[in-house]
Write a structure and sequence with these properties.
The complex is a heterodimer of chains A (338) and B (359). Chain A is of the alpha/beta class. Among the domains of chain A are: 59-166, Rossmann fold (3-Layer(aba) Sandwich), CATH 3.40.50; 211-337, Rossmann fold (3-Layer(aba) Sandwich). Chain A contains 13 helices and 13 strands. In chain A, the strands form 3 sheets. In chain A, strands 8, 9, 10, 11, 12 and 13 form a 6-stranded mixed beta sheet that branches. A 5-stranded parallel beta sheet of chain A has the order 5-4-3-6-7, sandwiched between helices. Chain A has a two-stranded antiparallel ribbon with strand order 1-2. In chain A, helix 6 packs antiparallel against helix 7 (187-208) and helix 7 (187-208) runs parallel beside helix 13. The longest helix of chain A has 55 residues, at 3-57. Chain B has 359 residues and is mainly α. Chain B has one domain (32-352): ABC transporter involved in vitamin B12 uptake, BtuC (Orthogonal Bundle), CATH 1.10.3470. Chain B contains 15 helices and 2 strands. Chain B has a two-stranded antiparallel ribbon. In chain B, strand 1 (137-138) and strand 2 form a beta hairpin. Chain B is globular. Classes of the chains: A alpha/beta (338), B mainly alpha (359). Chains A and B meet through helix 4, helix 5 and strand 11 of A and helix 4 and helix 8 of B.
Chain lengths: 338, 359
């Protein structure tokens, strides 16, 4: 072989490889530059998001009474003044922040055992929470509820951060869960929970939409005097969403005093009686006693033996278990669909 | 030489004995207030309580080492216990003073500060504010006490005008129209309770009375009214003595009966209304404290009035301290404690007093 050709070939190969190397380098250099700019874009995106997040951290919260509360940091010591608030806090995973509950809080855990063991503090009962017991806990957030105006005013006067959760309907309850999620840095957990609850509500609603008959429902809040639910609260909404008609839908109050006559006249097809656990015998006695109330044998529900009990806690507490109540009610009202 | 032993003592001797009595009772009241600062859900050592108090005193403040006093302890003593204890003392004093006045004017041992409808009027005012839910706070002030105060004054004004005959206000008519108006207003409260719906609980707890959520601003709101009212009443203590002889005799002795009666009624009602507006309805104090002090010290209003004021304050402060801790962390309504403890004590005093007892 002529060494000359070898040299040419080698030179050609060398030139070609240098050119291709340069080309490849230039190509990837361009790519790398692109990627670098992408990275820097992403970095600025992240910075933007972080500043957004930081803005979000300076939380401005509005409670159910329209009170505006500014949080500068997420709370670490939360006192719950109502069983429903406790249930929300535990359902969204903020349980490790809870330092005080009421004597009425009994879900999702047996808190009285925790309190006895010294792992949690009771701040008294729901109606008259003990201010000193709350202050001793050095709370950085207090979740109050309905009918606690006095204690809320006093605590706010002392500079404590208080949110009042006092919803009127199911939508408000879900909004309150989101609010508590925002307040406790459990946004995602709260969103997932609310989404899940909405799906379950929708499932019930679409299921009972196929019902051919909408029974009239009576819900007893108290006996002697007789109290039932008007359209002002979520109990009414639960009955209607579960495919029933609240016989006292024309009453605008949440709870109101009524009479045997009114109930007999409205002639409900189904009667619901709450059952509190561990609270002694139910206030309404037994179904035999209910059926023996004067004149009640004329009521359709009594004649057809459609008297039911339901866990008072899940119905009366504006927390996540309200949807359990809805599902149970729907099954009671429309057994044919479940 | 007149031997005063066993004989009526002279006036100056009595006055010096009274002074001593008032000083002793005042010291006892002060001690009770300080001691009751120690009572509550939170366990705060008494030395800490004293340090917190001393820190706020002029001069003494610099001498005390309060470095180990926590913010929470200070908040509990200064912002929670102090206002409620002072409110208790003020309300007890006001109700006892008003009780003395009403019993003196009506010359009736059954009379109490609520006899002219103050309590029923306050109940209507408070229930109305609760049922209507007037925001609960208006310009930063709670609407319930304000409307209770207004309600009680309107009620008394109505009773007074119903019983007025020309320029005179006969006590029998006053007493009866007080009862009538009270019954009428109680019925309105009952109606409000029925239509209150889920707010019923708030009304019930207000009616039971108590100091659980008293703040400093409540104390400052009623302090001037109660001080002014009791001062004016004390100024007329002598006239109350003369009124005890009967209105006609008093008139003959140169007392302008109608004027004195009006003034006393106005100021007694004012202090009762002030007291009720921050505490709710606390029964028993205004009825029984005047009797207890009368048994202890005699019927002369010049000493009966100041002593009743101090004893009333003393008694209510102690009852509130008991109410705070007896079933802790739940607080009992203080009216329950006043009746439970005061009732038997009163009966004991009545039985012990051998001679017949009259106003």
């Amino acid at each position: 072989m002529n060494p000359k050709y070898v040299a040419y070939t080698m030179t050609a190969i060398a030139i070609i490889s240098v050119i291709s190397a340069v080309y490849v380098y230039a190509y990837y250099e361009g790519k790398i530059a692109d990627m670098r700019s992408m990275i820097s874009d992403l970095q600025s995106d992240i910075a933007n998001l972080q500043s957004e997040l930081y803005k979000y951290r300076n939380l401005t919260l509005v409670d159910d009474r329209g009170y505006v509360l500014n949080l500068t940091s997420y709370p670490n010591r939360i006192v719950s003044l109502a069983p429903s608030n406790t249930e929300i806090l535990f359902a969204i995973g903020a349980d490790d922040k809870v330092v005080g509950v009421t004597d009425y809080c009994n879900y999702p855990y047996n808190f009285s055992a925790w309190i006895e063991a010294g792992n949690l503090t009771s701040v008294g009962d729901y109606w008259t929470p003990n201010i000193e017991a709350i202050v001793v806990l050095e709370p950085d957030l207090i979740l109050a509820a309905f009918a606690q105006e006095e204690v809320v005013n006093t605590l706010r006067g002392m500079g404590y951060k208080v949110l009042v959760l006092d919803p009127d309907n199911i939508d408000d309850i879900l909004k309150d869960i989101v609010l508590v999620g925002r307040a406790t840095d459990r946004n995602i957990e709260a969103a997932i929970l609310v989404n899940n609850l909405r799906h379950r509500i929708d499932a019930v609603v679409s299921k009972v939409a196929g019902a051919t008959f909408t029974p009239k429902v009576y819900y007893e809040v108290w006996y002697d005097p007789l109290w039932s639910v008007g359209s002002g609260g979520w109990e009414h909404e639960l009955i209607e969403k579960a495919g029933g008609i609240n016989i006292f839908a024309d009453q605008t109050l949440k709870y109101f005093e009524t009479s045997s006559e009114a109930i007999i006249e409205r002639n409900p097809d189904i009667m619901m009686f709450p059952l509190g656990h561990g609270a002694g015998p139910p206030f309404w006695g037994s179904f035999d006693q209910v059926k023996a109330r004067p004149g009640w044998d004329a009521i359709s529900a009594v004649q057809n033996d459609r008297l039911y009990t339901i866990d008072a806690d899940i119905v009366s507490r504006p927390g996540p278990r309200i949807v359990d109540a809805l599902e149970i009610l729907a099954e009671i009202i429309h057994p044919e669909l479940f | 030489m007149i031997n005063t032993n066993g004989v009526e003592t002279t006036y100056s001797e009595r006055v010096s004995r009274w002074k001593l009595m008032v000083i002793i009772l005042t010291v006892a009241l002060m001690l009770t207030i300080v001691l009751s600062l120690n009572v509550g859900f939170a366990q705060i050592p008494f030395s800490t309580v004293l340090k917190i108090l001393a820190k706020r005193m002029p001069f003494l403040g610099n001498l005390v080492d309060s470095s180990n006093v926590s913010y929470v302890e200070e908040a509990i003593i200064i912002q929670i216990r102090m206002p409620r204890i002072l409110a208790g003392a003020l309300v007890g004093a006001a109700l006892a003073a008003a009780g003395v006045v009403y019993q003196g004017i009506f010359r009736n041992p059954m009379a109490d500060p609520y006899v002219l409808g103050v309590s029923a009027g306050a109940a209507v005012g408070a229930s109305l504010a609760i049922v209507l839910g007037i925001g609960f706070t208006l310009l930063g002030v709670s609407t319930v006490p304000i409307s209770a105060f207004a309600g009680s004054l309107i009620a008394v004004f109505t009773v007074y005008n119903i019983s007025r005959v020309g320029s005179r206000v006969p006590v029998t008519t006053l007493l009866l129209s007080g009862i009538a108006v009270s019954i009428f207003l109680s019925a309105i409260v009952a109606v409000l309770q029925v239509i209150a719906g889920e707010r019923l609980h708030i009304i019930v707890f207000w009616l039971m009375g108590g100091f659980s959520y008293v703040e400093w601003k409540d104390v400052w709101a009623v302090l001037p009214l109660i001080c002014l009212g009791t001062a004016v009443i004390y100024f007329y203590a002598r006239d109350l003595n003369i009124l005890a002889l009967g209105e006609e005799s008093a008139q003959h002795l140169g007392v302008d009966v109608e004027k004195v009666k009006k003034l006393l009624l106005v100021f007694a009602s004012l202090i009762t209304a002030s007291a009720v507006s921050i505490s709710g309805l606390i029964a028993f104090i205004g009825l029984v404290i005047p009797h207890i002090t009368r048994i202890m010290i005699g019927p002369d209003h010049r000493i009966l009035l100041p002593t009743s004021i101090i004893v009333g304050a003393f008694f209510l402060v102690i009852c509130d301290a008991v109410a705070r801790v007896i079933v802790s962390p739940v607080e009992l309504p203080v009216g329950v404690i006043t009746a439970l403890s005061g009732g038997p004590f009163f009966i004991y005093l009545l039985r012990k007093k051998k001679e017949s007892y009259a106003i």
